[in-house]
Amino acid sequence: MSQVSYNCVNSVYFVGYVNIYWNHINMTSISEETIYNIIEKIALGRNLKNWRCSQEKFESIAQNYFGVIIPVVLTGEENGKLVSLKLALKLAPMDERYRVSGAVTRMFAREIYVYSVIFKKYEEIQKNVSFTSSYIMPHCYYICKEYCKEVIAMQNMCGEDFKPFTSDMFLNLEHISIALKSLAKLHALSYILKAREQTFYEEISKECLPLTIDTNKRYIDIMLDRLGKAIKKFEDSEYAPLFESLRENCAKCFEVVVSKGGSTCICHGDIWKENILFKYENGIPTSACLIDYQTTRICSPAFDTLYLIISSTDSHLRKDHYNNLLDTYYHSFDQMLKEASLNSANTYSRQMFDQDLELVWPACLITANTALWLSSGLQEEGHVRSKKVWSTPEEKERASNSYKQIIKAIIDDFSCYGYLDLKSNCFCF
Fold first, then answer.
1. CA distances from 218 to 64, 68, 178 (A)
2. Given CB 3.0 to 4.6 Å as the disulfide criterion, which of 33, 92, 279, 334 pairs with 344?
């Protein structure tokens, strides 16, 4: 008889897990029956005999604002052999009260599309080409697209010894280098797919639309709100006019990333340290697995790259290694294209990449401002609130000052790179 082993201890843990991720809303509990039904479908799909599953704990927990993730292990007999599948069940809110904006619904639909369509194609490419180093994708075992029952059952990469980076707010040189190499492979696979299956790529482009005020007005509105908050934080400073210009041109900042950039591909869209897992050998990161593909979209590769660097490293590291980091990214990108018999000079040249960096920085700064405001514990209202809760005026003041210092450093670095002239606040549109 097939069975699922959930006991009181596991149930208590699950409640704690929900509180970590959904402490900003009164989300209804996900029943054990719901979990059982998901696991049963996976077991039946794999033809597992005498199967059972148990709930696991993640050793470390990274941020995730738009989903509940439940780690389980499914074991059973497959073709006479005992198999054990380490799974992560990612579920959307099942109560319609928390779906009124449509944002979560769209995000889950996008991620489901990535796992069920795009990654299947990438897996085919990597099977047919002997890459020196492949792009790491969690295997997808089951998907449900039904409204308020959405679920993605994927390989639990933590069970494969991948871990989130939790020891510091920013990545060090070793970690950011590994992350950039992984991002470069993701972008390269998109160009390879485009070169080999143009019609299919165009179909993907219709699903993974660029970020504009028409495709995601709610997200644009959130970024506008955070820019308004930044203006108040930076009032009477040399940075205030820049934030006012960014707010005035916010939608256009994202439109030009696609319309005026040298080239576009299928990008992650929200690639920062909280969406990366690392694998280690003797304490040194050797590979990375990118996660959370809810914002995957057609965009400039330069946007993903620059956003990852500014959101996930501190200014000291950037001052010493910025150009080397760009070289690291592009070398990995170029190498993967060559191994697929593509010429990067004709596909997306280094010159185009460098020119696009000068174009995408406003959109990167706007996005980083939104993310850092949230991660600093400064967002106290709305559906998506900061998980850090500051209880005293002193704590809030320290968080505010930290946020301002990080944002200032990003702007000052952009000025040093020649992307920005603070005196003119001129955008190269």
1. 19, 22, 33
2. 334
Q: What letter does residue 159 receive in the DSSP assignment?
A: G
Q: Tell me the three state secondary structure of residue 302.
A: helix
Instruction: Tell me if 290 sits within 8 A of 183, measured CB to CB.
Output: yes
d(CA 273, CA 271): 7
| C-alpha distance from residue 396 to each of 233, 235, 367, 378 (Å) | 13, 18, 22, 7
Grouping H, G, I as helix, E, B as strand and the rest as coil, residue 276 is: strand
Nearest alpha-carbon partner for 328 in 171, 174, 130: 174
Q: How many domains does the chain have?
A: 2
What length is written for the chain?
429
pLDDT tens, N- to C-terminus, the chain (429 residues):
334 443 322 322 232 233 333 333 333 457 888 899 999 999 999 999 999 998 776 554 444 446 688 999 999 999 999 999 999 999 988 877 777 778 888 999 999 999 999 999 999 999 999 999 999 999 999 999 999 889 999 999 999 999 999 999 999 999 999 999 999 999 999 999 999 999 999 999 999 999 999 999 989 999 999 999 999 999 999 999 999 999 999 999 999 999 999 999 999 999 999 999 999 999 999 999 999 999 999 999 999 999 999 999 999 999 999 999 999 999 999 999 999 999 999 999 999 999 999 999 999 999 999 999 999 999 888 767 787 889 899 999 999 999 999 999 999 999 999 999 888 766 656
Calpha distance 362→367 (Å, rounded): 9
Beta carbons of 74 and 61 less than 8 angstroms apart: no
* Best CA proximity match to 32, nearest among 19, 50, 14: 14
Residue 236: other Cβ atoms inside 10 A: 6
Q: What does each C-alpha distance from 165 to 3, 63, 280, 321 come to in angstroms?
A: 35, 11, 11, 20
Question: Does the residue 184 lie in any domain?
Answer: yes
Tracing tokens 């505010």 back to the chain, one arrives at 400
424 lies in a domain?
no
Rounded CA separation 342/338 (Å): 5
**Which domain range does residue 170 map to?**
162-416
- The CATH number of the domain where 372 resides is what? 3.90.1200
- Are the CB atoms for 166 and 271 separated by under 8 Å? no
